[in-house]
Amino acid sequence: MLSTGRTSTEEMTDETTATGAAASVPMKEADGETLGGRESTDERIDIRADVLLDTLPQPAFLIDTAHRIVGWNREMEVLTGVDREAVLGDDDTAKFFQDDRTRTLADAVVDEPDRADETFGADRSGRNQRAYEAEQELENADGETLYVTSIATPIEQADELQGVMQLVQDDTAVIRRREAMADLVERSAETAAALDAGDLSARVEYTDDHERLDDDVLDITDAINAVADSTETMVEGLTDEIEDLSAAADRIAASATEATEEIHAQNDSLRAINDEMQNLSATMEEVAASSDQVASAANRAEEAAVDGASTGENAQSEMDTVVETSEELVETVEQLESRMEAVDDVVDVIADIADETNILALNASIEAARADGDGDGFEVVAGEVKSLAAETKENAEEISGRIEAIGEQTRETVEGTDATNDRVRSANEEIESVLESLEEIVAASQEAADGITEVAEVNDDQAASVEEITATTEDLDDRADEIEASVESVSELAESQRNDIEGMVEYLTELSASDAV
Q: Which of 116, 135, 352, 365 is deepest in the core (most CB within 10 A)?
């Protein structure tokens, strides 16, 4: 049993310990249990309670079933600032604690050994869950608030409660460490939240003034701050990169827009080209038909030119004959003119003879007048001669007039014949020129016919090529539509990317702005 070193009688005397002598806890020699519930023996263990309690490294006290303090170790003296002699025998343990408690956990266990967890709000612990624990706050002798865990263990012997020992475990350092750790974690979490919210200037600011945390734990703040510094530097660099990327995205979007416009224009051009090619194809078909007609007309023209050349040659032959005849006519008329001149000379001679005859008749009349009657026959003859001479003269004058008229006509005929002959020669020369032109026309018609035939063949080839080109342009038109759709898709993606990048730029700008603040 535990003892103060005195006899059992002395230990059990009532109020004899009020003078401050150490009390004892009477322990019955039991058949099966001793302190702590271990199997007991018949041996007697005589150890003073204060000596036993002083061996504990933490504050401890012991009360009996009447709530009287029978043990108070040196650590309790330090904790409460109350000496052992001042508390032994007192049944109000709570008043020695500098707080507002009205009873201790040990008192609750004395009152309800099996239900103290319910009546005091403690937790069961220890072997067979016979002990009770409760976390509490109290002030020590220096006025400092301590965080302690009170552990009350009932002491029984022979299944009968002998008393309760309460240990006061100072957890202040642990609690302070825990609070410091919680404070550090809270500040780290706040810093992380600030960083997550965009405040890149946020840093963990914590100073362990009481040196409650290990250096390894404090290194966490340096690590977090280093990560924040690295993140801030990275974001600043990323901001520059994103701005460059945004500018590039703007250029891409602009290029995509320009490409879309160009594709639209190219599509319009392709459609226009396709329309033009179709029109050209139709035109080529018309040209081909016209070329056939022109070729036929050229062949007919060639035939007509050949016929004209043949006819011209015949006309030239006839004109040659006409020229020859005209020249013969001119010669004949000239001969007639010469003969008319000879006749005119004869008429002049006859006129001269008539004049002379008149003179002879006049002389005969004169001679008849001289002969009087003998000259009557002479006179008659002279009269007849005179009459004949006068008639001859009249006829000669009439012939001369007619000859003059015939000469005039002959001269006009000669002049007309000469003019006709000149015209015939000119016509002959023109016919020769026409024949040369007809020969050139024939050659040109042949060349034109050959050229038109070649043009028709080339036109047919070009028409086939135009059909191929038309088919190609239609295919290009279809592909251009696909390209246009793709470019529009790229443009939309570029626009979406630019919007995303602008959002990133705004976000990073806000981060930088908050960092600057």
A: 116
Report residue 92: phi and psi, to 5°.
-120, 80
Please give the pLDDT value at position 160: 92
In Å, the largest CA–CA distance within the chain is 265
- Could you tell me if 129 and 151 are in contact, meaning their C-beta atoms sit under 8 angstroms apart? no
Of the chain, the percentage scoring pLDDT greater than 90 comes to 16
Amino acid at 389: A
Q: Is residue 50 a contact partner of residue 4, using CB atoms and an 8 Å limit?
A: yes
90 and 62 Cβ atoms separated by less than 8 Å: no
Query: 3-state SS string over 203-255?
Result: CCCCCCCCCCCCHHHHHHHHHHHHHHHHHHHHHHHHHHHHHHHHHHHHHHHHH
* CB of 347 closer than 8 Å to CB of 399: yes
Would you list the domain boundaries of the chain? 8-170, 267-507
Q: Which fold has domain 8-170?
A: Beta-Lactamase (3.30.450)
- For residue 433 the two structure tokens come to 């020129």
Segment 340-364, tens digit of pLDDT: 777 778 778 777 877 887 787 778 7
Residue 102 has phi, psi (to 5 degrees) of: -110, -15
pLDDT at 8: 34
Residue with more model confidence, 134 or 232: 134
Residues 13-34 have a mean pLDDT of 40
Range with the largest mean pLDDT of 28-37, 74-83, 122-131, 375-384:
74-83
User: Is it true that domain 267-507 has CATH number 3.40.50.1000?
Assistant: no
Interior CA angle at 82 toward 77 and 88, to 5°?
90
Helix, strand, or coil (residue 384): helix
Question: DSSP characters for 65-118?
Answer: TTS-EEEE-HHHHHHHS--HHHHTT-S-GGGGSSSS-SS-HHHHHHH-TTTHHH
Q: Find out whether 163 and 64 touch, Cβ atoms under 8 Å.
A: yes
Provide mean pLDDT across the span 177-196: 83
List the structure tokens of 140.
């020590």
